[in-house]
Structure formats: C-alpha cells, structure tokens
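Retro notes (design track)

What went well: tokenization of the new backbones is finally stable.
What didn't: we kept losing track of which sequence belonged to which structure.
Fix going forward: every design gets posted as structure first, then sequence, in one message. First example under the new rule, 160 residues:
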C-alpha cells in the first residue's frame, strides 16, 4: 500500500475527467471534488461529484456518488477490479465505502491535510485488519486540483 508516484497517460486522462466532474460540482456551488470510476477493461463505469449541499445529504461525496451509480449500473455493490480517480484524497467515510465496494485501486490528486484517510491524516485503507487491499496512489495533477479547492474556499470566505 502507501502512496506511489508512477502514473501513466491513461491515469492522467481519467484524472482530467475527474477534474471536469469537480468543475460540475463547483457550478452547483458545491465543494469542487470530482470522481471517475473505471472498469478493469479501461472503460468508464461511473462518475460523481459532490452534491452534499444540493441534495442536503452529508454522504453525497463525489466518491459515494460514483460508487452508487456504478453499483446500479452493474447490479452489484462489489466493484471488483475498478479504479477510482478522485480530485481530493478520500475521507474516512469514503475510504471505508471503497473497501466495502472492493475497489482495486484509488488514484487521488490533492492530499487532504484535514480529513484525508488514505495516508495524510489517517490511513484507513491500509489497515491490515481489512479483508480487502486497495492500491493507493496520490499526487496526480495535485496542484491543479488543490488550486481549484483553494480558490473555492478563498471565494467563500470573501465578504459579500
């Protein structure tokens, strides 16, 4: 487990799609986090972006939205062999949902120094007590994702 820094062109392309999902969240005045779930065969399975505010749902994180859509598409909660690309390191809720869904790999852009649960603050995914192991790679297009998040929160703090 742990954070690795070897990414390929497909990884970058999928993360760009996750960044597009983050833009969609921001357009709804949501925290700009986007996720893309890809099948082992390399085809898109599901996408998601934050909808916590618009859905009045604290669980409507980008990762959860993508997992829910994928489960419906496959008719199964187990998403074996999939890779999740997400613009922000998953929180504890999302990390555990990824373990339960049996996702194979998580690639995230920006680390989350406040609630990150894939190595920054916590490392829930790597806990050896789980019966499923997820490969985690962080830092892909981190600056771009981090700048978008920083700009969003800076704008929110600006007096009206």
């Amino acid at each position: 487990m742990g954070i690795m820094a070897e990414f390929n062109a497909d990884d970058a392309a999928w993360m760009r799609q996750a960044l597009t999902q983050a833009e969609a969240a921001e357009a709804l005045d949501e925290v700009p986090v986007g996720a893309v779930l890809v099948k082992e065969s390399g085809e898109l399975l599901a996408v998601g972006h934050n909808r916590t505010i618009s859905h009045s749902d604290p669980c409507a994180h980008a990762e959860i939205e993508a997992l829910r859509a994928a489960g419906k598409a496959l008719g199964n909660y187990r998403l074996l062999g999939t890779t999740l690309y997400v613009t922000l390191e998953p929180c504890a809720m999302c990390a555990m949902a990824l373990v339960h869904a049996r996702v194979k790999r998580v690639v995230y852009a920006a680390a989350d120094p406040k609630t990150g649960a894939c190595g920054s603050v916590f490392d829930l995914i790597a806990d050896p007590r789980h019966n499923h192991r997820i490969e985690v790679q962080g830092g892909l297009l981190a600056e771009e994702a981090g700048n978008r998040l920083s700009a969003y929160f800076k704008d929110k703090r600006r007096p009206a």
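Added context from the reviewer: The beta strands are 3-4, 34-38, 44-49, 83-88, 105-110, 135-138.
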